[in-house]
Amino acid sequence: ADGNGDDAWKKGDLPMLLAVREGKVVAWNAGLKEFFSSADLESRVVEQWLNRAGVLVESPPSLDEICRIRPEETALLENMMKLNKLVDEERYDCGVAGCCKPFQHEHVGVKTEAQNGLLVAEEQVALCQEIS
What we know:
Layout: E1 2-3, E2 16-21, E3 24-30, E4 36-37, E5 40-41, H1 43-53, H2 63-66, H3 71-90, H4 122-131
Antiparallel strand pairs: 1-3, 2-3, 4-5
């Protein structure tokens, strides 16, 4: 099935070739049967179809045109990176992976290089046992 610009392409058979211009489907071909002779793809026929659809260009657009980043997007990215850096700088390193608390603290029951994970130090426990 062949079509131009309407939404009927959404009900077509797969595989399908869509011609898209400025974000809109301007032509479609469901099934692709007319593009093949026996089992071989006829690239000339595909090229003619793309040309009739008005989407074939002689030279591709420059990479800057395709992947252009607008100045406001660059500014937003820079601001987000600055904020992320501030968050990292303000983070207290307690030794527990994934913890982002900005203040000094300990995790009870979690043993790290910086802490033993006990609520009461072993020395205090030993001292209390000696006293009693």
